[in-house]
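Sample intake sheet
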Amino acid sequence: SRYGIRPIFVIFDDCWNPYPKIGKQPQPIPHTHNSGWVQDPGMDAHNDWAKAMPTLEKYVKDILTTFGKDNRILMWDLYNEPGNQGPVNKTAPRFPAYGNKSMPLVKNAFKWAREVNPSQPLTMGIWNLDLTELNQYQTAHSDVITYHNYSEKADHEKNIKYLQLFNRPIVCTEYMSRGSNSTFGEILPILKKYHVGAINWGFVSGKTQTIYPWDSWEKDYTTEPELWFHDIFRKDLTPYKEGEVQLIRDLTGKK
C-alpha cells in the first residue's frame, strides 16, 4: 500500500497440480513453467463436493470476514479459471478438464461471499468462451467483469466488444504471452483504447519460471528460451526488452 498497489486476491483455482498438500512444498522443476502451482481445493474435493463444502465455506467466510473492509484490497477474484485442469508433472499427462463439474463451487463461492458482503467488488474471470454455462453464471454475478485472453490482437478486441455488452467495468487479469503474439505492443494499446484494466502475467524472472512456455510441462528445456513467454525484467532488474518497458511507461504516463 505504500506504493499505491492494491492486490486482487484469488481464493479458489482449477489450474495445474490437482493434488495440493499441506506442509512444505516441492522445489520447482527446473526450466518448467509454474511447476510449483497447485489447485485449490483440487481433484479430491471435486470428486466429493458434499464432503468438501463445509470446510470450503469456513475458509471463504473467514478470509472475507477478516479482510472484507480492508481498503488495501482492490477486489476478490473468487475462483481462477473454474473448469480448467493441468498436468501434475512431466511424466503425468493432463487430466480431462473439470468443465461444469466446477459449477457447485462457483455458485457457492458467490453465495458465501455475498453473505459476508465485503466492501470490495467480487469477480470471477472468464477464460474459455466455450464454457457457456460457467461464463453466464460468472458474468451475471460479478460486480466487475474480468477475463483472461492470450490470443492475438483481433481475437482480443472481439473479446472486449463482447464483454462490453454487460455494461460493467472490465479488467483483463491475464494476458501477454509472447509466443502467441499477445504482446505489450499488440495488446496494451487496445486495452487502453477501450478503457480496460490490464494485468499481465509475470514481472521479474524467478521461481515461477514463467519465461518458459506452457509446453515446458511436456518438452525438456535446458537453457533460457530465446523468446520469453512471460515476465518483464531479468533477475538483476534490467528489462528483457527495453522497448516494452518504454511502451508501458508511455501508455500509462509513468515516466
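Comment: The mean pLDDT is 94. Helices lie at 43-46, 49-67, 103-116, 132-141, 153-163, 184-193, 242-252.
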